[in-house]
Hypoxanthine phosphoribosyltransferase
Amino acid sequence: MLEQDIDRVLFTEEQLQARVAEIAAQIDRDYAGKQPLLVSVLRGSFVFMADLVRRITLPCTVDFMAVSSYGSGTTSSGQVKIVKDLSEQIEGKDVIVVEDILDSGNTLSYLLKLLEARHPASIRLCTLLDKPERRTKPVAVQYSGFTIPDEFVVGYGLDYDEKYRNLPYIGILKPRVYGGE
Ligand SMILES: O=P(O)(O)OC[C@H]1O[C@H](OP(=O)(O)OP(=O)(O)O)[C@H](O)[C@@H]1O
Ligand code: HPA
Ligand SMILES: [Mg+2]
């Protein structure tokens, strides 16, 4: 059972849904009269993205990009691999990059630079979780769900070694699972 590997629940399903609704309402207000393109950074953000778009009432479009930098560990390898690029051009569009977590900043500093070079009309970052204590690369974030302590979290899309993404809540993984104390 996945549950046995969880030390404690950080955010319940209800807390996540309530915060997602608040972020969607903020996006609705900020992009009134526009049609934002939401870019989900796979794989981690798929659950957040699916909940977020269903709470946004503006017309919006979606696209997906897959990147990977963690492999099977709990720290970033520093190498960001583009596994799948966007399907559409973003030039002149109002882009919102949707992420599950901003940790070292490696993935997003790389990705935002790459997307900015394609000349969108605007680009903003929406991350469900922010772990600022671990930041090594500065990243500006406009929409952030929760600030979390320096613990490895899983669930609601977030994995450890590709597992736990299907937990409906976000929990702290027991360190023994990844060979910690
Ligand atoms: O700020 P950073 O230290 O770069 O960490 C954040 C990134 O790491 C995770 O992705 P991962 O590489 O594990 O791929 P995944 O989404 O497929 O799990 C997460 O989904 C973010 O994209
Ligand atoms: O705490 C985390 N959990 C899962 N994936 C991650 N990628 C960066 N930080 C994390
Ligand atoms: Mg991962």
About this structure: The first strand starts at residue 6 and ends at 11. The beta strands are 6-11, 37-42, 61-68, 81-84, 94-102, 122-130, 143-147, 153-154, 170-173. The pocket of hypoxanthine (ligand 2) is lined by residues 70, 101, 103, 152-154, 158-159 (CB under 6 Å).
